[in-house]
Structure formats: C-alpha cells, structure tokens
Amino acid sequence: MAGDVLSQNEIDALLSAISTGEMDADELKKEEQQKKVKVYDFKRALRFSKDQIRSLTRMHDNFARLLTTFFSAQLRTFVDISVVSADQLPYEEFIRSIPNMTVLNVFEVPPLSGHVLMEINPNVAYAVMERLLGGGGTGTSHTGSLTEIETKLMSNIFERAFENYREAWINLVDIEPMMTKFEVNPQFLQMVSPNETVVVISLETTIGRTSGMINICIPHVVLEPVISQLSAHYWMQSPDKKEQQPEEIEHLQKRVESAAVPLVAEMGHSDITIEEFLSLSVGDVIELDSRIDTPLLIKVGEVPKFTAQPGKLNKKMAVQIIDTIKGEEEGDE
After folding, report:
1. What is this structure's pTM?
2. Number of domains observed in the structure of the chain
3. For a designed S-S bond to 131, which of 34, 75, 170, 212 qualifies (C-beta 3.0 to 4.6 A apart)?
4. What is the 3-state secondary structure (H, E, C) of 47-77?
5. How confident is the model over 264-277, as pLDDT tens digits?
6. Where is the Flagellar motor switch protein FliN-like C-terminal domain (predicted)?
C-alpha cells in the first residue's frame, strides 16, 4: 500500500507541527478511534460484488468483439464497439436514463429465467437501418413510430446480432437467446419491478461517422442461478477441483468431435534439383523411394498415425487402413 507510506519530508513536517502545537496528537488519536459510518441507500441495493461485476465486464468485452465482427460484415463499413461501463442500479433508474423514443429488444435466455433487455440508441439504430437500405449510415433519426418495414428490418438485424450473446456466455452457461418483444417506448416496457437491481453494461458504438450507446440490461433474477460462478475464485480454481456438469462435458465432446483435422496419405518421397523441377512437364515420371507393395503412411495433423494400402472406392482414389502406429509424437518421423 504505497499510497499510505509517508515520505521523509512529510514525516518531518508532521513532527514539526506536533512539536510547535499546531497539531494535537491526542486529537488525532481520538479521530482514529471514532467509528466511521458509511451511508447505505436501501433503494439502491448493491447485490453484486466488484468481483462479479468485473467477470460480467470480461464476458461483455468478448460480446463487443463479436458484435464488431458481425456488424462490420453486415453493414460493410467501419464499426467499433467496446465496453465503457458496467453498473448496478434499480430498474426504474435505468428506464428513466434512456431516451423516450429508442429501440428496445427483449430476449429470453433459457435455461435462465427472466429477460435480458438490449437498448440501442436511435442514432445507432437508424445508422444500421440506413446501411442495410444502401444509404451512408448518417444515423439521422426521425420522431414518431416506426413503419412495418423499419420494424421488421431492425428486429431482424438485432435478433441476429444477439445470437452472438450465446458465444460470450458459453464458458458460464449455454443459453439460447430468443427475441420475445420489440418496443420503441420504454414506458410501455415493464420487465421487473421498479426497485429490482439490474446490471447495465454500456457499449460505446461507432458505425461509420455515427456514434451512440448500446445498453445491455440484465436483471438480478436472470443472474441469480449462476451468481456464484461469477467470482474470480471459480474461474481460477484448478480443473480437478472445478466440478464439471454433464452437459458441459457433452458440449465439449461434441465440439472436439466436430473439429476438422488434415489427413495426408504419403506414397513416398523423392529428391530432385531445382533445374529438374523447372523442366517438369506433363507425362514426366518421378521415381519415389518406396516400393509399390509398401504400405502408405497416413498422417493426422503432421503426426504419423496409421498405415494403409491404396485402392478405389466408387471410382475414386481411396486408402484402406491396415494398422495403427502407436507411441508416435508430433514431429517424429
């Protein structure tokens, strides 16, 4: 705690003040012994620790990167999205802080209960719509209700954007985001009670030359089942101590099984000079260092794993596995 350490000059000044009577040592001691009272507002209950807020911020940093990639591909213009703040506050206070006419998308996130709200500033929403319609994306919003075409365009693009939310949450819980409501007036939207604590993640968004905010509002009821998993202790504990759920193991197994790996069948090798290589033409024959009756070497990701014999299957070149090579490590030939 370097900030609590006094320099030599400060120590000398303090001793000088006490010796001259400018400061009373007894009064300083009394002030230290007095109980310090911290004001607590029961209307603004803090139900999340700083550690849990930091975990949510890290998750939404990943979500911001995914959104940047998605909108860049869809709108074909410069897009930059980053997390600027994460706060917990009453739901009523959040609703009062957003514009009267804005774009509100309400999502269910099963298996978690409750709803998550995605609020998009009108400047950002109209910039997105203009780009989709071939415009420059200036983001000039107009007052009044949206037309059916505008509503359909906006709800579709933001519903597809929110699909990236699943990827951001995958290490915590596998959710299935589904849009349930599209609204433009926050006064008509009542997800939870006014005093319910919510976490609001604010994303600063730049699309072309237009800037604005995207706010993700997550009520406490949504996070309650996984709130213990938001602590740093949960993420830092060793894998053998961290209990894995059966669905997590199954999901990991499916991801590994679907991973693509390169498979190479080597018929043999040959060394030729650059001059010989440059003079090759159609019909030339290259002599390999293996016999025709020698099994082929099958490599998986550059690692020898099998031996096989060549053949044909449905008029296509193929190989038939003969045996498995055991004990081979990557890089060993």
Report:
1. 0.57
2. 2
3. 75
4. CCCHHHHHHHHHHHHHHHHHHHHHHHHHHCC
5. 888 888 888 898 88
6. 255-325
